[in-house]
Amino acid sequence: MAHGPSYQSLPASLPPGHHPSAEDEYLVQPPQSAHEHSDANVWIIVKFGLWLAISAVVISVGMGFLFGLFVKQGEETNPQFPLAVGQEQRLPAAPRLQQFPGNEFYQFRQHEEAILQEYGYVNKDAGVVRMPIAEAMRRVLESGLPARAQSASPKATADKQTTPDQPAQATPQQTETLGLMPADSSAGRTMERRRQ
């Protein structure tokens, strides 16, 4: 039975230890060669894995305790500002930033609506109260508003009317204000002489 080429079948012209190709080196098994009889020790590998897991757990727990200790020491030795010692925490001066502008605007509108639609005191000591707008309007309509007294009757004004061929007579009051106009500085409350 042939088991492949032997050392004697190789060309004699090659120097010892050299083969025509890399595969030729493994074609022939040298005499007295055999496989390794010892296998890897599984128990040693398992023990190494167990010790590695135990070490990881112990180191993680120790680091957690150490971190907690550092945080506690940092809080105890954290120096406070000299001006803040013995004082309550105060808000900064107004105006401040709004945390929830939408909610604050809604609450403001609710408060304003309550003032307009409910009864309440404006000044309790003076006895000044407020009432809803609808109620105030109803009461004003029932009692009526004060009116200005008319200066002259329509008949008297009709008598004073002049015909087109008769010039109008100026009253003394009109004569006094003939050369005057309302002043800008007083929004028309006083009169000033017209500029020529």
In short:
The chain has 196 residues and is mainly alpha-helical. It is built from five helices and four strands, in the order ααββαααββ.
SSE layout and pairings?
Blueprint: H1 42-76, H2 101-117, E1 120-123, E2 128-130, H3 133-143, H4 154-160, H5 172-176, E3 180-182, E4 191-193
Antiparallel strand pairs: 1-2, 3-4
Low-confidence stretches: 1-8
Mean pLDDT, rounded to whole units? Answer: 75
Q: Classify the beta-strand content into a percent band.
A: 5-15%
Arrangement of strands in the largest sheet: 1-2
Shape verdict: elongated
Fraction of residues in helices?
A: 25-40%
- Structural class by helix and strand composition: mainly alpha
- Main β-sheet description: 2 strands, antiparallel
Order of helices and strands: HHEEHHHEE
Distance between the termini: 147 Å
Radius of gyration: 57 Å
Overall number of strands:
4
Q: Helix count, per DSSP?
A: 5
Care to describe what's here?
The chain is mainly alpha-helical and 196 residues long. Among the domains are: 43-72; 105-140, no CATH class. The protein is 38% helix and 7% strand. The protein contains 5 helices and 4 strands, in the order H-H-E-E-H-H-H-E-E. It has helices spanning 42-76, 101-117, 133-143, 154-160, 172-176; strands spanning 120-123, 128-130, 180-182, 191-193. The strands form 2 sheets. The protein has a two-stranded antiparallel ribbon with strand order 1-2. The longest helix has 35 residues, at 42-76. The termini are far apart. Mean pLDDT is 75; it is low at 1-8.
